[in-house]
Amino acid sequence: MPRLRKAARGKRRWLGLEVDAVFSTRDDLQGVLERIPALGEDWRLYDFKDNSAIVRVRLEHYADARAVLEPGFEGVRCVTASGKIRLVRQRLGIDRPPRRR
Fold it and tell me: What pLDDT is stored for residue 25 in this prediction?
């Protein structure tokens, strides 16, 4: 089955998060993010490194997710956002992981 074209995949936004040190594993952070209904059903945790994380959300849920995460939610706070993951990684100082093939 052919992949969807770029325009048909839908728009998304990338949220750069600052997380407390109590989150030592990716699963701990994912458990907290699952309790935030404002992220919608199609969110995904991309990077988690050194108390920083990047989450992808759909454009429809972006405003609600940002409103919940900017003041902070159980040790997770949104510090930046963009339509390009490259810019969020740059602002948080996260290097791009090597590509898996």
Answer: 87
- In terms of C-beta density within 10 A (0-12 exposed, 13-18 middle, 19 or more buried), how is residue 82 classed? middle
Q: Which CATH number fits domain 11-92: 3.30.70.20, 1.10.20.10, 3.30.70.3250, 3.10.20.30?
A: 3.30.70.3250
pLDDT in tens, 45-56: 998 988 899 999
* 54 three-class SS: strand
Name residues of the chain where pLDDT drops below 50. Answer: none
Sequence ranges of the domains in the chain: 11-92
CA–CA gap between residue 94 and residue 26 (Å, rounded): 15
- Predicted structure pTM score: 0.86
